[in-house]
Design brief:
single chain; 8% strand; 9 helices; 2 domains; Heat Shock Protein 90; 443 residues; alpha+beta; rod-shaped; Four Helix Bundle (Hemerythrin (Met), subunit A); disordered C terminus
């Protein structure tokens, strides 16, 4: 027996693996993106902002250096206290920048403490210098500027420069780490796509293999069904032939004998006994009617004329009887020279003709039909055409009669077609090879 295991379990397992892979990859990607976002916001963006503030501080320190240079050069006839408002403005901007930078600075506590103490000492020394200048000791004040204040300013500038260098290094490390995260995400995306591709290919191959097996099973079942149908048709024909022979040979002869005996007995009845003679005549008529019915039934089950006179002889007997029984005009046409049709082929041609004309009488609502028999060098073609309603579009393949005609066509290695007729109606066309070897090849 072929395997009938459903692919549902395998497909569900593949779906579960796919969903799990998608979930794992999505979670990993989300974590990587969050890490990248945190790196950008907490490191790169913060370092850039801190670097801008350090540049602002360094700019203020450079302004202090320029102001001290002008104070020492004495190029303008102003006292040292005249630079006090400029230093005050620079101090306000510098203190604001330092306060902002301290909030986001990645520097260590010692570095921040050193910078804050150095700035405080610078302003204390500057205040003492302005106090000396205000007391008339400008030369002493300039000396302290040259010896102490400029050195403090250079120390502050160097400290700020070191912080800028550290920020640049941190930013480069953060950029390298972000690049690594991007590379990992990209690599995992390629791996995920490759895994999905492999999974899709595996699933597709599985479905193709399963569908191939299913088609093979369907083909095998169809073959067994066809063989069973052909066996049933063969058994049916053999049964019909046996019953027809029994009816014709046994019951027909018995009824014929009874009729002859009644006829002889009727001659012995006195002519004066008219009532008894009438009863004998009635009984003899009943026996004759029964004999006619038995012969008609035998002819319907298996036409003896088919064995005696061949297919064309059977047509000449069947078609007039069909016209008389159903009231449908039959136009018969033959093309080509008559050929001998094998008995096994002839019975199937005859049954297809019977079924086609029966469908005309039952379903077509047509008052006439055409039967054409055409002989070709290698084949014989039988056509039954009516002018009725035609085949129903949905139920064409559902009738047992049509299925039976198909099976009979396969039995003789023929081809049957059910065609719509132009202008309304239907055509049943059966093409059968005349060679005995070809017609019996399927059997």
């Amino acid at each position: 027996m072929p395997s009938r295991r459903s692919p549902t379990i395998g497909l569900l397992a593949g779906l579960a693996v796919t969903l799990s892979a998608v979930a794992v990859y999505s979670s990993y990607t989300i974590l990587q993106l969050r890490s990248l976002r945190r790196l950008q916001t907490e490191t790169i963006d913060r370092n850039r902002t801190d670097s801008l503030l350090l540049l602002r501080i360094q700019n203020n320190l450079n302004s202090l250096a320029l102001a001290m240079r002008d104070m020492l050069e004495q190029s303008e006839p102003y006292p040292l206290t005249a630079w006090q408002p400029q230093f005050k403005r620079i101090r306000g901007d510098l203190d604001d920048a330092l306060a902002r930078e301290e909030k986001i600075s990645p520097a260590t506590a010692d570095q921040r403490r050193y910078l804050a103490v150095s700035v405080t000492q610078f302003w204390d020394a500057l205040d003492r210098i302005f106090a000396l200048a205000a007391g008339g000791q400008e030369q002493e004040a300039r000396t302290r500027i040259r010896l102490s204040l400029q050195a403090r300013q250079e120390g502050l500038s160097n400290a700020v420069a070191r912080l800028l260098v550290e920020n640049n290094a941190n930013e480069q490390r953060a950029a390298a780490e972000a690049q690594q995260i991007h590379a990992r995400v990209e690599r995992n995306a390629y791996l995920f796509l490759a895994a999905m591709l492999v999974l899709i290919v595996a699933t597709s191959l599985f479905l193709v293999r399963y569908n191939r097996k299913m088609f093979e099973q369907v083909a095998a079942l169809s073959q067994r069904r066809s063989e069973l149908a052909q066996q049933l048709i063969s058994i049916q024909e053999n049964t019909f032939r046996y019953i027809a022979r029994e009816l014709h040979d046994d019951f027909g002869q018995i009824l014929t004998a009874i009729g002859a005996m009644l006829q002889r007995a009727g001659r012995r009845i006195p002519s004066v006994d008219s009532a008894l003679r009438a009863d004998f005549e009635e009984v003899r008529d009943i026996v004759q009617a029964t004999l006619d019915k038995v012969r008609a039934l035998s002819q319907a089950l298996h036409p003896v004329v088919l064995d005696d006179a061949g297919f064309e002889g059977a047509l000449s007997v069947y078609l007039p009887g069909f016209e008389k029984q159903h009231g449908i005009e039959i136009r018969y046409e033959k093309c080509g020279s008559s050929r001998t049709v094998d008995r096994d082929v002839a019975i199937h041609l005859y049954r297809v003709l019977q079924e086609a004309l029966t469908n005309v009488a039952r379903h077509s609502k047509s008052a006439q039909a055409e039967v054409r028999l055409r002989y070709h060098p290698e084949t014989v073609v039988l056509e039954v055409e009516d002018h009725g309603v035609g085949f129903p579009p949905v139920k064409e393949n559902q009738g047992m009669g049509l299925i039976s005609m198909r099976e009979r066509a396969e039995l003789v290695n023929g081809q049957i077609e059910f065609l719509p007729r132009t202008g309304g109606g239907a055509i049943v066309r059966l093409t059968v090879p005349l060679s005995v070897e070809e017609t019996h090849a399927a059997s």
